[in-house]
Amino acid sequence: MNVTQDLSFISLIANASVLVQLVMLLLLSASVMSWTYIFRKMFAIRSARIQTEEFERVFWSGGNLAALYQDALSNRRKAGGSGGALERIFQAGMGEFNKAKASVAARGGSADNGALLDGARRAMRAAYQREMDALESHLAFLASVGSVSPYVGLFGTVWGIMNAFRGLANVQQATLAAVAPGIAEALIATAIGLFAAIPAVVAFNRYSHDIDRLAIRFESFIEEFSNILQRQAR
């Protein structure tokens, strides 16, 4: 333990033990990564919400489904353009429905309305799951940072305080001035742990709520679009 009267933040970190410095570096790295995912997820969810609202407005405006499906295909083919999550769900369901109808027509048989609808519903469910997996990516990392960082910081604090008290054996008179720098160095680890954990927890809770709301909108659309396809299959 380096006993110093310079209690500036940088000096305390520089004079901390190697293990405490490694803990601080680990926590700072986790904080940087969590902030990166926080901003990326914020833009991704905002974009998904805007695209969903735009597609719902176009879909429920009463336009032709075949034309809307062709627009979805053209958006998918554009360079850098893939449409929104809800548009891809619609495209999966409509595409499977059209393929099933074309297959029945090619065989010259009668269409089984239940089979047509089940195929479209399965395709939309698969697309829905892919979209949810994409939206929920990196949320587990934020949850881990939020739950683990305080304990990692606490470990660094305990280790630093232990070193501070061990250092008292090398001085003739134990005073607060002798032990205060070591304790301050150790407490910085807890502070950094909280700095990493609090934004991660707030972001995880907020984004989980936003993704759940989008999931409800996707599921509602799947049910409503299935009813439309059922009427078209008759």
Automatic annotation (TrEMBL):
Keywords recorded for this protein, A-Z: Cell cycle, Cell division, Cell inner membrane, Cell membrane, Membrane, Transmembrane, Transmembrane helix
Main location: membrane
Superkingdom of this protein's organism: Bacteria
MotA/TolQ/ExbB proton channel domain mapped to chain residues: 87-219
InterPro entries: ExbB/TolQ_transport (IPR050790), MotA_ExbB_proton_chnl (IPR002898), Tol-Pal_TolQ (IPR014163)
Transmembrane segments: 12-39, 139-162, 182-204
Membrane topology term: Multi-pass membrane protein
UniProt cross-references to HAMAP family, sorted A to Z: TolQ (MF_02202)
Similarity remark: Belongs to the ExbB/TolQ family.
Subunit structure of this chain's protein: The Tol-Pal system is composed of five core proteins: the inner membrane proteins TolA, TolQ and TolR, the periplasmic protein TolB and the outer membrane protein Pal. They form a network linking the inner and outer membranes and the peptidoglycan layer.
Name listed for the protein in its UniProt record: Tol-Pal system protein TolQ
Organism of this sequence: Herbaspirillum chlorophenolicum
Classification lineage: Bacteria, Pseudomonadati, Pseudomonadota, Betaproteobacteria, Burkholderiales
Encoding gene (name): tolQ
